[in-house]
Design a protein that fits this description.
globular, 5-stranded parallel beta sheet, about 40% helix, Rossmann fold, 2 domains, single chain, alpha/beta, about 525 residues, 5-stranded mixed beta sheet
């Protein structure tokens, strides 16, 4: 196979991608729709989902670089191709933690300098950068046409300084004034597009009249960033066909890819996408399955928030949120569930129409394993405890239907786990301890699985085997066995074709470990 040239390494410039690379997953119909319908648009997505490329594509549309869009969806619409002056800000790539306000002002002035030089207008650098911004918009509008403003990762300076409240407050006040220019300059603007992780209520563009249209959870735009299953099979057919033999055929290969990389849901509807970065790197490395998105760098602000807010780590799984929890945050009230959702570690798993609550869960195997590693490094040190040889034996014991071996090994290593942030030594504490180890191994473990008869504590899926766990703390093991028998949990997997084990486990609150177990097959 002659490898196609894929846009690996953070290619974020649309013109370069179209000229120098072999694949572009066409999102231009979405651009046509939002630019035709709305004046100002906001989009929230996790990092490395293609937000910057989307910004660059929008810029090319409004710069009238029509030749780049030949054969794409927008070329078949009634889009009025016309050049507008574009002001494009990118607030990533700067360290705001030291002298943050001055760094922000300098970065904004530098990018306004580029705009002025490109369009031949003159405005002086100023610490009152919001005033200069308004002046640039007005002059471009008067000289050429209404301006287009694109702001990529508008909230990066705020997240970058989350653990430095004084610097954060200074930056927030400056951004509040800077972004208010979008409202004040409405008559001079054709279109504005803003991306970020979330919405801050204290940033002026999200308050009062003329707020941006937030498309982050609108079903029509669920795939404006990321790759759908249909797009994967269409745009990457040569790669899929070439590597499928390595994994036992196309169907097996696609299923493995779906389990490992798919599963991001951003709306109520059951429509999911792949992370673009992971898929591209997977194909570029001859279809090796690895956590490319995760190892590209964890969001530092997520780590800082976990460390500074003293979050009880066992509460992360099975999070519930209502619609209002996804946006309109104040700087000091971001919940850990919302933060993990916005940064891509959790995604929407289900929606209850009756209550209006969203349930969150891990998107896929890659993220499940990566978050377990993150939590283990920061809370339990499990990753350092479980060596590679032991990891292999733990996985092997479950994959081969030997739960006794698994439980013996698990007991040894639970002795060494210290979830120091957990103050609640309950059944769920141990559910989390066990599931975090399982997730670290790359297997799927679900907690609090609801059935018509009740709630299963944990379920582990390992190849041809399913393991249903009932945990008790400081109680006889017969109590757990009786619950398994009465609730008949295994019935929901009776048609799975897999061998099912029911395992009753008793933990000691004092010893923080397993003291008894029974296995039913």
């Amino acid at each position: 196979m002659i490898k196609r040239k894929l846009p690996i390494g953070g290619i974020q410039t649309f013109s370069k991608l179209r000229k120098d690379y072999d694949v572009y997953v066409d999102k231009t119909m979405h651009i046509y729709n939002i630019a035709s319908r709305y004046k100002t648009v906001f989009l929230s997505r996790p990092r490395r989902f293609g937000k910057s490329l989307l910004c660059s594509t929008i810029e090319s549309v409004f710069r009238n670089q029509r030749e780049l869009f030949n054969g794409l969806a927008i070329s078949n619409t009634d889009w009025q191709w016309k050049e507008y002056p574009v002001i494009h800000f990118d607030l990533t790539g700067f360290d705001y933690t030291n002298n943050g306000l001055n760094v922000l002002i300098s970065a904004l002035n530098d990018q306004l300098d580029n705009v002025c030089n490109h369009y031949g207008i003159s405005t002086e650098r100023s610490d009152i950068v919001e005033g200069r911004f308004a002046q640039v918009i007005a002059e471009l509008s008067n000289k050429l046409d209404q301006a287009v403003v694109i702001i990529d990762e508008y909230d990066n300076p705020l997240f970058n300084t989350m653990d430095q409240p004084l610097i954060n407050a200074e930056i927030r006040e400056k951004l509040k004034g800077f972004y208010s220019v979008l409202k004040q300059s409405d008559r001079h603007l054709r279109f504005s597009f803003i991306t970020g992780v979330t919405k801050f209520a204290q940033v002026s563009m999200f308050s009062g009249f003329n707020q941006p249209k937030d498309i982050s959870m609108v079903s029509e735009y669920y795939d404006i960033c990321g790759i759908t299953q249909e797009e994967l099979e269409m745009f990457f057919a040569p790669e899929i066909e070439s590597y499928a033999i390595k994994y036992g055929g196309i169907n097996n290969y696609l299923e493995k890819m779906k389990t490992y990389y798919n599963g991001y849901f951003f709306t109520k509807e059951k429509k999911s996408v792949y992370n673009t970065y992971g898929i591209l790197n997977h194909f570029d490395t001859s279809a090796e399955f690895a956590p490319y998105w995760s190892i590209s760098g964890e969001p530092s602000f997520a780590r800082k928030h976990l460390e500074t807010k003293e979050i009880d780590a066992i509460e992360i799984e099975n999070a519930l949120m209502d619609a209002g929890d996804f946006s309109d945050y104040k700087d000091d009230t971001i919940s850990i569930f919302a933060l993990l959702y916005q940064t891509g570690y959790l995604t929407i798993a289900d929606y209850d129409e009756a209550t209006g609550y969203y349930k969150l869960d891990y998107p896929n195997t890659e993220v499940r394993q990566s978050l377990a590693k993150f939590l283990s490094n920061n809370y339990s040190k499990t990753e350092n405890i479980i060596k590679k040889s032991v990891s292999a034996e733990l996985v092997k014991s479950l994959a081969e239907g030997r739960p006794e071996v698994f439980l013996d090994l698990l007991k040894t290593y639970l002795n060494k786990v210290d979830y120091s942030l957990s103050s609640k030594i309950t059944e769920y504490y141990f559910e989390f301890a066990v599931s975090n180890i399982i997730n670290l191994l790359g297997l799927e473990c679900k907690n609090e699985v609801h059935t018509a008869n009740g709630r299963m504590d944990s379920v582990i899926f390992a190849g041809d085997y399913i393991y249903i766990f009932e945990f008790k703390v400081n109680k006889p093991v017969k109590d757990a066995l009786l619950q398994l028998s009465e609730k008949n949990y295994l019935s929901i997997y009776s048609d799975s074709g897999k061998t099912i084990f029911e395992i009753a486990i008793v933990f000691s609150r004092e010893k923080r470990n397993i003291i008894d177990w029974k296995i039913k097959r």
